[in-house]
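## retry 2 of 3
previous attempt timed out at serialization; input unchanged, resubmitting
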Amino acid sequence: MRNTEFKAMQGFMAFVDHVHPYVAARAESFGVKPGMTVIDYGCGPGRYTVEFAQLVGDGMVYAVDLLDIALEQTGKRLDKLGLTNVSLVKAAGYDTGIPDGVADMVLAIDMIHHIDDVPALLQEISRISKPDASLVFSGGHMSRRAVKSRVSAGGGWQIVEEQKHFLRYEKAGRST
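## retry succeeded, writing output
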């Protein structure tokens, strides 16, 4: 995505958030709790990153994106609110550089339609996730059926919860 496209998307999201504010309620519905380490994979302009940072309190949020402009805009939001529990991470392809096994939860909100290599994405998410971590996908621009199909074909994760706005996965073979 080019910077001009990103800025147009950001402007549209700001309009939507003004007309129909729902980000905070959706962020809470994902089950983010105080003290968690969460990854906002594909953070975009940081709409959810800010909410996750507030929800984890003394926990940690990694805001991951491929685009410098996304991380810059997320950083501006965080600075404005004085939130310091977020690390901005520029991904190189699917490699985040985040240490192994740190995430309690990985959230991928309205980004899977941008992914060309879902198995590579899921492999990186598995690497950075604790054994009992959950993965939350919210399709947005992709139908639920398409998200399920792509994640299932990518392997390594199984659905454990379906809600109106998201799918929760856990590592395949994990006993709940």
